[in-house]
Design goal:
Layout: H1 2-6, H2 9-20, H3 22-42, H4 45-93, H5 97-100, H6 105-147, H7 149-167, H8 170-196, H9 198-203, H10 207-256, H11 264-275, H12 279-302, E1 322-332, E2 335-346, E3 350-354, H13 361-368, E4 376-381, E5 384-385, H14 391-397, E6 398-401, H15 412-417, H16 424-433, H17 437-442, H18 460-474, E7 478-482, H19 490-502, E8 506-510, E9 524-529, E10 532-537, H20 538-542
Parallel strand pairs: 3-8, 3-9, 6-7, 7-8
Antiparallel strand pairs: 1-2, 1-4, 4-5, 9-10
Helix pairs in contact: 2-4, 3-4, 3-6, 3-11, 4-6, 6-7, 6-8, 6-11, 6-12, 7-10, 7-12, 8-10, 8-12, 10-11, 10-12, 16-18
InterPro entries: AAA+_ATPase (IPR003593), ABC1_TM_dom (IPR011527), ABC1_TM_sf (IPR036640), ABC_transporter-like_ATP-bd (IPR003439), ABC_transporter-like_CS (IPR017871), P-loop_NTPase (IPR027417), Type_1_exporter (IPR039421)
Protein name: ABC transporter ATP-binding protein
Subcellular location: Cell membrane
């Protein structure tokens, strides 16, 4: 957190000045009050007029200082919050795929929205009051040493005692704030999932069950928030109690040590400065706990993952000969998916991946694409261990076509090119290869037609074809396809699969469909059965297959 604050040193200095100048208004106001109180002793109308004018000046000065302080502070507060949002978003965007998938998407949304909004609302308010309180304490203690050094020494010892008593609440405060954060994440995920599947819930008349779950999550969140607020409230009340008792003792000391003919204005100012060394301390530690708990949350959001800082991923992805799998084993918890599997994938060949549901087809693709790395055995790309290859380099040379297609709320062109620049001839080739001609003919603006949120104005087949066009235009070294034609009709499915098989790239595809006259173009069939991998030529595979 300290690093974030110091990134804009000039802004931070202005922020400190904005906090510090408030102390002048505080001291001036207290001095004016003390002098006016002194008029009671002198009963001088001249003094009353003089110090009334002084008090009016102090009031006007206080208003101007507050405005100046606000102007000095607001820019830094805004820029720091913006920087945190940008850093948090950058941290998410630069995660490795395996690291990103450790959390649900909606948890990231909760971090970016709920947690940072909470930080913005509480952190700078606490920081201002912390600096202000520390300034009051320091200046008041120095003035008190001038007025009464014995009282100053006593207040120094008392304030340190109060500080350490309050500090004992710190760990509990931070823990409770983190519990609120986790409950916020769980609540956001639960609500988002419920809304995403609301249509299915209503059709199956089970919305009451999910409503009950949502109410439980809401209750858990509100209870933890209430516990946090109650704890911090009573922490503050306890601190105030200590301050109240100390103030009474200060008053007793000041009155009991006053000599005959004492100066009432000086006595009042001494009492005010002594009180100002205890009240800030009763507030500082609760504020410090708020700062610490919110800073911990932000630091957790911005924390770089170990995967993102791997030092062994140093090699570039270069697939010129083959990918070899040696004695590969992989398990999900207690379920063995692959066991001592061996396979060689040749550059430029087309592989059809077959197996029953849950056999491990998608798992094999995830292993080959660096999504999973906790496996036994080796995956070698031209002899280089896949674990040593940089993920960004791999992603640059690989393309994926999934059943679940994500589309941006942007033009068809940008959804195909993914905001990169491509020659018009390459765009035309991708459109033709993916069978998008008929779609573009129906759109008045063609490639410039804007797609609604995640393709709401497109059919499933149209969305899939845009995904295929994305893969074609990138000219990848290797293409992974998962049930590409499942949402397409027979004619278009044959066309799309024929296009994929005609690409000058290595293809590894999962498909339950078999298009006679097209699917035979695969060079090999990879079968996964009981954790083992068998490689057959298409001719050998077809000898045991019957199809219409």
């Amino acid at each position: 957190m300290r690093t974030l604050l110091f990134q804009d040193r000039k802004g931070f200095i202005k922020y400190l000045i904005g906090c510090g100048i408030l102390i002048t208004e505080y001291i001036l106001t207290n001095l004016a009050i003390a002098e006016i109180a002194g008029v009671v002793q002198t009963r001088s109308m001249d003094d009353l007029l003089k110090y009334s004018i002084f008090a009016l000046f102090a009031f006007i000065y206080a208003a101007l200082i507050f405005i100046a302080s606000r102007l000095l502070r607001i820019g830094f507060m805004r820029d720091t919050t913006l920087r945190i949002r940008m850093e948090a978003f950058k941290n998410i965007m630069t995660k490795t795929t395996r690291s990103f998938n450790r959390k649900l998407r909606n948890e990231y949304i909760s971090n970016l929205v709920n947690d940072i909004n909470t930080f913005e609302g509480k952190y700078f308010h606490a920081l201002l009051n912390l600096f202000f309180g520390a300034s009051i304490y320091s200046v008041s203690l120095l003035i008190l040493f001038y007025l009464d050094y014995r009282l100053a020494l006593m207040m120094l010892l008392v304030s340190l005692g109060v500080f350490f008593i309050n500090r004992s609440f710190q760990k509990r405060t931070i823990k409770m704030q983190e519990e609120v954060q986790r409950s916020n994440e769980a609540f956001t995920v639960n609500v988002s999932n419920t809304f995403s599947g609301l249509e299915i819930l209503k059709l199956n008349r089970i919305e009451d069950r999910f409503l009950l779950n949502s109410m439980k999550e809401t209750d858990r969140l509100e209870r933890r928030k209430a516990n946090y607020f109650i704890f911090t409230f009573w922490q503050g009340r306890f601190s105030n109690f200590l301050g109240f008792i100390t103030t009474i003792l200060i008053l007793y000391y000041v009155i009991s040590t006053a000599e005959e003919g004492f100066d009432l204005a000086r006595l009042m100012f001494t009492f005010s400065m002594a009180s100002s060394t205890i009240w800030p301390i009763t507030e500082i530690m609760p504020l410090f706990n708020v700062l610490k708990s919110n800073a911990t949350i932000i630091e957790n959001i911005l924390k770089r993952d170990e995967d993102s800082e791997k030092t062994d991923e140093v090699m570039q992805y270069a697939f010129d000969r083959d990918i070899e799998i040696r004695n590969l084993s992989f398990s999900y918890e207690d379920k063995i998916v692959l066991k001592d599997a061996n396979l060689k994938i040749e550059k430029g060949k087309k592989y059809l991946l077959k197996g029953s549901s849950g056999a491990g087809k998608s798992t094999l693709i995830n292993l080959l694409s660096k999504v999973h790395e906790h496996y036994q055995g080796e995956i070698l790309v031209d002899g280089v261990n896949l674990k040593q290859i940089r993920e960004d380099s791999f992603n640059e040379h690989a393309s994926f076509i999934y059943q679940d297609v994500f589309l941006f709320e942007d033009t068809i062109r940008n959804n195909i090119a993914l905001f990169r620049e491509y020659p018009e001839a390459e765009m035309e080739n991708a459109v033709k290869g993916a069978g998008l001609k008929s779609l573009l003919e129906k759109k008045e603006q063609g490639l410039s037609e804007v797609i609604e949120e995640n393709g709401k104005n497109l059919s499933g087949g149209e969305r899939q074809r845009i995904s295929i066009a994305r893969a074609i235009i990138r000219k990848p070294q290797i293409l992974f396809a998962d049930e590409v034609t499942s949402a397409l009709d027979e004619t278009l499915g044959r066309h799309v699969e024929d296009t994929i098989l005609s690409l000058d790239t290595t293809v590894i595809a999962i498909s339950h469909r078999f298009y006679k006259g097209v699917s035979e173009k695969y060079d090999y069939v990879i079968e996964i059965v009981n954790g083992g991998i068998t490689l057959k030529t298409m001719e050998a595979y077809l000898e045991g297959v019957q199809y219409e």
